[in-house]
């Protein structure tokens, strides 16, 4: 049986670590420097959709993801999680057995019992997860060539990640959260992992959140994309809409520059006489034909380029995407 | 694959239309399932599903319950008709406009067309340049 996928909603969520009230000599109190991991996040995660969570190191990705699995409690704001339609019945995940049974978070660390065999960790998750598929787990152990009789501490980084991937998929949780699960996996293993996600998701639709730094590799897996930056949501919208934010041109420098003139350039790369630029917006009517006639190839907007541009510290590009911040990927 | 500027589902639909037009996909032949498509091209299944449902609406594909998607009878003829209509506006008109920009006289184009069609050998162009 496939359960109804879970959605999630965050309203004005703030997470601060290490906040402390301190007293001055004069007797007044002040707040000591705390790290603000999330700073007023409003976000809706659509049920039954694969959402990509992108952000630079320290952007708040892992904090956001751990909130959903009740690993972290917000400093303020509300979080609601629950199945598809009836979102008035969604519940706060914090210390909520119903939510935690239905949410599988796999962290980069794997959360494995290091001194027990891998098979023991799998048994533990099998007991915890009502929709666990033991056959799938066994097949994936084979596929990723993980010996379940070994202890996690005896496995390579990539194999430990593979165990995390197996847990994440075999749990079949209505809300599956994969936080940088690919670390240490070699390229063939990563691609096998992506294929398994897609195949199993197609057969058993559920909500999958996937965070990764390998933007180019995973861009096409996403139906929705969230970009976090410095604890805030910079952009949250369907991948299709993101793709319409720009396009790329490749061809002879002069012809490319002519079309690019007056547009906001997200990325530029030059190789001899050939230039590739990534531009904001869409090609104007007739521009495509003119470009082709001039030997310029028009391509899609690489999510990677947009991501890099958006999260560069010194740029005003954030203003350009303000329209994308109006309340998340609904 | 699917690197064009259009949304990926538009490009997928275009690919299937081209395959039907070229006869690579015969009428009544089954097309890949959404799942096969998603894993083969490593794209989100919803993207593939969107392309397929668009093609069903267009009458290029049809759904057989529990079996999958098939190329609709008459799909190729319909697509040929549509593409023939679009050929003049989308392909020939821009080509002629470009010829205009380059200063290629119409009779030279006519001669080229007649020649390359195999009706008669392509006449030698006047060597003025």
From TrEMBL, chain A:
What are the alphabetically sorted keywords of the record?
A: ATP-binding, Nucleotide-binding, Transport
Q: Which GO terms fall under molecular function for this chain's record?
A: ATP binding
What InterPro entries does the annotation carry? AAA+_ATPase, ABC_transporter-like_ATP-bd, ABC_Transporter_VariousFunc, P-loop_NTPase
Signal peptide region: none
Family annotation (Gene3D superfamilies): P-loop containing nucleotide triphosphate hydrolases
Ranges for the ABC transporter domain?
Answer: 8-255
Tell me, what's a Pfam family for it? ABC_tran
State the name under which the record lists this protein. Answer: ABC transporter ATP-binding protein
Q: Which organism is it from?
A: Isoptericola luteus
TrEMBL record, chain B:
Cross-referenced SMART domains, in alphabetical order? HTH_GNTR
This protein is called what?
Answer: GntR family transcriptional regulator
Per UniProt, residues of the HTH gntR-type domain are 6-74
| PROSITE patterns in the cross-refs | HTH_GNTR
Tell me the organism: Isoptericola luteus
> Matching CDD domains, A to Z?
WHTH_GntR
Keywords annotated in UniProt: DNA-binding, Transcription, Transcription regulation
Record's keyword annotation contains Transit peptide: no
Q: Which residues form a coiled coil?
A: none
InterPro entries cross-referenced by the UniProt entry = Tscrpt_reg_HTH_GntR, WH-like_DNA-bd_sf, WH_DNA-bd_sf
């Amino acid at each position: 049986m496939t359960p109804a996928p879970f959605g999630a909603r965050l309203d004005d969520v703030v997470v601060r670590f290490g906040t402390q009230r301190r007293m001055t000599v004069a007797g007044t109190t002040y707040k000591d420097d705390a790290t603000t991991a999330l700073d007023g996040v409003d976000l809706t995660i659509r049920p039954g959709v694969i959402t990509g969570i992108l952000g630079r190191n320290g952007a708040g990705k892992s904090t956001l993801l751990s909130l959903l699995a009740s690993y972290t409690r917000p400093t303020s704001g509300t979080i609601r999680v629950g199945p598809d339609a009836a979102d008035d019945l969604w519940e706060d995940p914090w210390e909520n057995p119903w939510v935690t049974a239905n949410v599988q978070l796999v962290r980069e660390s794997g959360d494995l019992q290091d001194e027990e065999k891998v098979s023991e960790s799998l048994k533990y998750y099998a007991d915890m997860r009502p929709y666990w598929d033991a056959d799938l787990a066994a097949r994936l152990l084979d596929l990723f060539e993980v010996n379940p009789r070994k202890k996690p501490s005896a496995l390579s980084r990539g194999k430990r990640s593979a165990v995390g991937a197996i847990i994440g998929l075999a749990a079949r949780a209505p809300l599956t959260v994969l936080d940088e699960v690919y670390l240490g996996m070699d390229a063939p293993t990563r691609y096998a992992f992506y294929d398994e996600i897609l195949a199993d998701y197609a057969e058993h639709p559920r909500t999958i959140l996937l965070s990764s730094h390998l933007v180019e590799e995973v861009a096409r897996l996403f139906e929705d994309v969230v970009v976090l930056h410095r604890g805030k949501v910079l952009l949250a919208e369907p991948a299709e809409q993101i793709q319409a934010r720009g396009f790329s041109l490749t061809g002879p420098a002069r012809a490319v520059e002519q079309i690019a003139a007056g547009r906001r350039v997200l990325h530029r790369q030059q190789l001899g006489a050939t230039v590739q630029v990534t531009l904001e917006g869409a090609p104007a009517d007739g521009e495509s034909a003119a470009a082709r006639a001039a030997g310029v190839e028009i391509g899609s907007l690489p999510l990677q380029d947009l991501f890099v541009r958006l999260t560069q510290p010194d740029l005003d590009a954030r203003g350009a995407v303000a329209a994308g911040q109006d309340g998340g990927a609904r | 694959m699917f690197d064009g500027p259009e949304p990926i589902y538009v490009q997928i639909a275009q690919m299937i239309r081209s395959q039907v037009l070229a006869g690579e996909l015969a009428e009544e032949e089954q097309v890949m399932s959404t799942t096969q498509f998603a894993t083969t091209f490593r794209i989100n299944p919803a993207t593939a599903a969107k392309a397929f449902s668009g093609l069903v609406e267009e009458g290029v594909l049809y759904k057989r319950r529990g079996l999958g998607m098939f190329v609709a009878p008459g799909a190729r003829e319909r697509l040929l008709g549509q593409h023939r209509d679009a050929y003049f506006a989308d392909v020939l008109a821009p080509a002629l406009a470009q010829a205009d920009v380059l200063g290629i006289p119409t009779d030279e184009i006519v001669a080229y067309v007649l020649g390359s069609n195999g009706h008669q050998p392509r006449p030698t162009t006047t060597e003025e340049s």
